[in-house]
Amino acid sequence: MTPRAVRDPLDTTVEIETPEHVRFRYHVAGPAKRAAAYLVDLAVRGVIVVFVGLLAMIGFAVDSALSHASMGLMLLVAFVVEWIYYVLLETLWSGRTVGKRVFALRVVTEGGHPLRFTDSLLRNLLRAADFLPFGYAIGVVVMGRDPRFRRLGDLVAGTIVIAEARAVVAGPLHLDPPPSLAELRPLPQRLPLSGDELDAIELFLRRAGKLSRAREVELAEMVAPVFARRLGVRYKDAPRFLGVLHYRAHEHRSSSMGAPLGPPLVGGPSSAPKPPRATGVTA
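User: That's the sequence. What structure does it adopt?
Assistant: Structure tokens below.
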């Protein structure tokens, strides 16, 4: 696989193309998120060391002869936690630690593969160099100059830290205002549209609110005339026409399943009625 950084001033991503020419895009985690994850991991490591320290104090209180052994155990645990914590969790949790899990971050190879033990070991051995002279100063400087925000350990191990997109269940679409009888009357109860065509219409409608009005109309005009000729109807507003088609298809599907009908479609519900932007379908 050949990684290729896609430089965008508003959206930092890395694009990876497989030998089969399949492309994947990942959002690269910036210094702020990585620093927040580090603070969480620091707190977790601190809790572990403090817990062992309390056990050492109990051992000292019970028998003074155990004080030296207890202190030695605490120092050993602090050393192990500092150097093994990241390697162990990143290997067992597929590139995640507690802090990375909290902020939905993950370490992967530059080729998009899951992190291996050797990769994690190498990137974390260089953590000491990134820390120099104090507070990860070198690591922050190197990350700031790298387009994929890699510190020295990432550069040597060939890894990147990505921000995983959280899964969001899409809600129902809402056409605002709902279709009128004049818009629905020319349309048949069962639209002669395939499942792929209805899926394409829904995909457009879910993106419509995020596009400019000009771009929205431009995209809708690519398919609206085809559907209008097939149905033998005319329209004045292409995006509105596609919204009405989706409403009719959803209405038929809901009624056949015995589900209550609501006003499904574009833009989201509003607290007050709004005048229609344009008429969707004309006879």
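Residues 181-282 form one domain.
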